[in-house]
Amino acid sequence: MEDLNDLAYFAAVVEHGGFSAAARATGIEKTRLSRRVAALEDRLGVRLLQRNTRHVAATEAGERFFVQAQALVEGARSALDSLADLRREPAGTVRLSCPQVMAQSYLAPILPGYLATYPKVNLELEASDRPVDLLRERIDLALRAGARIEGTAGLVTRKLGQARRVLVASPGYLDAAGRPRAPQDLARMDTFSRPGDVHDGQARWALAGPSGQAAVITHTPRLSTDDLRMQLQAAVNGIGVALLPEPIVSASVRGGVLETVLPHWSAETHMIHLLYPTPRGMLPSVRSLIDYLAVHLPACIQERSVELEDDHETAP
């Protein structure tokens, strides 16, 4: 493939009617232009320009070549200009992935503010519980939550917050099954779990009490799923007791459709991380969303956690 610079030099000479005029227009030395165009002719094996001491004109082959060369050069300039526009200010499309329940609980309250702040950015949000490969699927950012974040090789992992996991159930279920007075009472109740926590049909909850007490509860879950949204809905529907991140259940607790169970006991916190490829060459649009989430997502998590803690403190 020919050097686009040589095509640009040739096109400039034809466009401006000579080497001297092209040199004045481009700022490139006349001798360099002449040498590069001559080298281009040698490689092509065709004379592109007729030269004399007073005039330079394109040959028939040069005229045909000029049309194609000029189109290529303009196309390359347009491509570079489009990148320059993206690098000047946040603009273009940013792709973000996160689990559905996090999209509803954490992102729905704050992303409209981001879009209003950056009107030239388009956001593609993939709210999916499946694991995504950021590099292979060309996803710019991903939110993940868990006691441990895995599968982060080659990615920047930035902690944005943490959330206690609390026990919840519907008031109707607790009225029928009885409200537990101690963690050991949970073993007799209907419960939910994640499939990875179930072994030989049994799951375990490791709970911590208000004064540092520890309790490990073995239970047989009625529902095993990684979909926290499904666990939340099952708890609202009175199926059993769920152990879920505090910000996710706070709205349901405030609305009275869920009730905290053993409110002074909780499990290992969920860490919320933002993952993205190395920032080298990162576009301003992606950087703007990282910075926005770093400010507003922790505040959203904290606000919902404090609301639920306040409910605990005021409970009779």
UniProtKB/TrEMBL annotation:
Gene3D superfamilies: 3.40.190.290, Winged helix-like DNA-binding domain superfamily/Winged helix DNA-binding domain. It comes from the Bacteria. One of its GO terms (molecular function) is sequence-specific DNA binding. Keywords: DNA-binding, Transcription, Transcription regulation. PROSITE patterns: HTH_LYSR. GO terms for biological process: DNA-templated transcription. Residues 1-59 form the HTH lysR-type domain. Belongs to the LysR transcriptional regulatory family. This is HTH lysR-type domain-containing protein. It comes from Novosphingobium lindaniclasticum LE124.
